[in-house]
Prior knowledge:
This protein has 370 residues and is an alpha/beta fold.
Amino acid sequence: MSALFSPIKLRSLALPNRIMVAPMCQYSAENGEVNDWHFTHINTLALSGAAMFCIEATHVEAIGRITPGCLGLWNDATEAALKPILASVRKHSRIAVAMQLAHAGRKGSSHTPWDGGQQIPLADGGWQTEGPSVVPHKDGELAPLALDALGLKRVRDAFVAAAKRAERLGLDALELHSAHGYLLHQFLSPISNKRTDQYGGSLQNRMRYPLEVFDAIRAAFPEQKPIGVKVSATDWVEGGWDLAQTIEFAKELKKRGVDWIDASSGGVSPLQKIPLAPGYQVPFAQGIKAATGVTTMAVGLITQANHAEDIVASGKADMVALARGMLYDPRWGWHAAAELGGQVEAPPQYWRSQPSNQKALFGATMFGTR
Ligand SMILES: Cc1cc2nc3c(=O)[nH]c(=O)nc-3n(C[C@H](O)[C@H](O)[C@H](O)COP(=O)(O)O)c2cc1C
């Protein structure tokens, strides 16, 4: 019996296995709106065999986008654009669909990665970003403006409005992006947060705004639907955010009903030194789970089925999220199920692909002809 292919319940969302397609920016939206690229991308990965697909970082206001091609959910047009994609996914797959709600803060106004990913100057169509403090991400960059009380309220309200739109779209879950050096992580980390008000200084104060945003979206999203949080468990910089603080954050989130913590790392400082290796972030999921009992997802360089199986079977994490591995092999879940003796749902159009030595891979199927 495969642990990876055993069911799990998040509030009333029943998932048949422990695999999520991690959120992945496509940098291909126009005015924050999805288009035919996203239609193909999302529908393809909806057939991956994962139990849940998380839509890429979806920004709650235009200045909160990382790049001009980033996805948004801040007006009727961005909401309407998602409808046909979701309708198609629902027609052909029973995968749960989550959405990651995000705000880039001082890391907004960037070129797409394939254009170098650096800050876009105002003169070249960039925009003035906002963050916790007037501290640029990189030396020499245009610094963000510090969010004042009105700005904090505006952004929090934008998260709430996006959560309501997500519910109207029928999404099954939300993931709050509090990782990778974006706005909420900027509040958590002493590297980017130099505030002297109630949102800066002590750990309690630095956690305050991300927790306020969590509370606000939790109150706006149906009670039976789960909300997770993606964290960077360390900045990989001496004196920055670390696992001990992440555990305190997870405890606070647990009190507020968080349904999972997706444990990533880094992104707040160009000085980070990351020891990349398969599963290098698994110990963070493990540490958070051990200290708090919160459901965790391990993410980062998990590409092999037996590695994923071991992470879940050994209790290091409750679920795994895969990003690059899913792009490389969009039927990753099928192949993992075949290897581990699990079962996945496949659309009848593809049933005939079931390998002859894997008669139960797609469950009860039949294919008659005359
Ligand atoms: C193309 C691409 C886009 C990404 N966009 C996001 C994103 O929107 N939100 C996020 O939290 N992480 C994003 N990530 C990070 C992944 O979700 C994941 O945490 C990371 O890639 C490590 O997992 P992997 O080794 O399976 O790729 C992105 C990664 C890739 C490769």
